[in-house]
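Hello everyone,

My group is preparing for a crystallization screen and wants a predicted model to guide construct design. The compound we'll soak is magnesium ion. Before spending weeks at the bench, it would help to have a computed complex in hand. I've included the protein sequence and the ligand's SMILES below. Output in structure-token form would be ideal because that's what our pipeline reads.
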Amino acid sequence: MGTNQETSKDGADPVAVRERVTAPVEAAGEMFRRFWPLTRPDRATLLAAAVLLIAAAAADTVAVLMFMNIIDGAVASGRMSAYWVPAVTWISVAVLAAVATSIGSYLSARAAERFLLRLRDDTFEHLQRLSPDFFERHPTGDLVARFSGDIETIETLVSSGVVQAAVSLVTVVFFAGAAFWLRWELALVVVALLPLLVQVTRHFSARFRTTTQDERTSNGAISDVVEQGVANVALVQAYATEQVEAGRLHTEGRAWMRARLAQMRLTATYTPLNDMFESFAIVAVLGVGTWEISQGRLTLGGLIAFATFLGFLYSPLQRLSGLVLSVTAARASSDRLAEVLETPPTVTDPPDGITTPAREGRLTLMGLGFTYPGAGRPALSGLSVEVTPGRLVLVTGPSGAGKSTIARLLLRFYDPTAGQILLDGIDLRDRTLAALRHSVTLLAQETVVVDGTVAENIAYGSPGAQPPAIAEAAQAAHAEEFISRLPEGYQTRLGSRGPQLSGGQRQRIAIARALLRDTPVLVLDEPTTGLDAAATAAVVPALRALMRGRTTVLISHDLRLGPLADDVLVIDHGHLAEHGTHADLLERGGLYAQLHHHQYGPVGPQGPRPVSPVPAPARVALCDPHRSFVGLKLGA
Ligand SMILES: Nc1ncnc2c1ncn2[C@@H]1O[C@H](COP(=O)(O)OP(=O)(O)O)[C@@H](O)[C@H]1O
Ligand SMILES: [Mg+2]
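Reply:
Good plan to model first. Here are the tokens for the complex, ready for your pipeline.
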């Protein structure tokens, strides 16, 4: 069973594999194009670092030539007088090289770290603008891995030196030039060995890239399994599926291990192979060098200087070939970050968008239609409705009818694929997203408590809200009482380590948060689902306070809320099936009446019969002075 999975994974997609194996130079070029614009603010620093490091390389070259001078001029002939000039020159350039290297390395590291900071910030900012379907396609763990591991891989490349690479290249040119100048026949011997080295490096980097991609993918998969396992731990334990989850982790862990071992195998072969070539080169140089000295074409100092240049060449060359490997590794990570960065947000600010929020809250849906990206059939079509400011509209219908889709379109998580939505006569797409979201508040079914105090939670979305305003919102949301009983009141920390709030309490915090934002339009998606009768009873008055005086789109399959609404829209298969008041629709005996019948039994001549969905006797009076009587009875 495991083998099946393995073969399908390895033989996954031959086209993709071929596409992945590109030359490192091409990879470097691609990454350069991708990330160069991000370095703009640090280009002066980069330039300064490069100049300093190149100066250091030049100083090193001069130092070796002074070495040669001392050997040939002073050591060989035993003349002290010939010692001083090269010695002092050598010391001066050594000091220069030390200072230049130290400042240059710091500057290049600084540019690299600032680049990474910017890369992370930009990627996250972009990520937060992407539409919900992106997050459905990319599991959380995988995205988290991109922000940790992949950024780290790029950091290794960038800090180990894009600048260092340029400098290594210049150093190689300097030292190689000096070697040729000293004795070109000797240098040719070394050059003859180069193609072999290049071929080997190319072969290794191609394979290294494939394994790195596998390693990154497995890393994302591991984070994902752990993330889900922890998030769903209650379900896992309750259904005794620990072994299944452990098995999943093991499978991904094995894939990761295989990729790592393949990487290790490659490095373990590559490095010694490199060392071996170096020995070949040295032995060959000594042979040819001895021959040249015997023919009187080279001095001992010349040969030593030549060998020193070769030795000095070794480390920048080594660095360059190491860089080829980290470029290859970073390419995979860069692709994974680029996938985030290059996914365009499906909704964007219009050029010259209107920046003022709506004031009235008049909603007009005109021939509204929407098909989810990749979905075959539309989730909504031909929906036309007008909602006058301050009215409460109940949107109901069977599950999957398209109710939540309306909420997503009202908040512009997606843009309609047909028709349009006007808010105060202006198409939603003509306002900036910030202005739109200061016009419309969404209260989702799943209430989110962010990490922070109660006060911070209520003020989330209203930056700068003052404590009195926060308290007022909490009071209106009927949350004040339980907040005052928390250990530190408004300063109690909520979140994973804070006290556990009940569903109804969380919902009232969310209502206070929505109240504080005070927008003309309110969209509620199933605000009472998941709450029991007692919690609903506690939440409904808070909801009423929230809805008062605002255009409210209340999405619910709970028809006990029907009498509350000025208008009821019944959605079925993405179409507007019925439209009217609660009483009208019951009388009409259509879909609404049927749904009502399923929930609460037949409707008698005197109107809907109150039915108790739960035995707990709880009575909620929904009397609103601003509306005609709305009575709601829960329990017997
Ligand atoms: N992200 C999505 N991608 C594709 N189809 C979706 C997506 N979300 C919802 N749908 C489909 O759109 C239809 C309406 O969904 P939704 O508006 O959530 O229904 P509900 O009325 O239960 O709130 C359903 O058929 C659902 O399967
Ligand atoms: Mg829904």
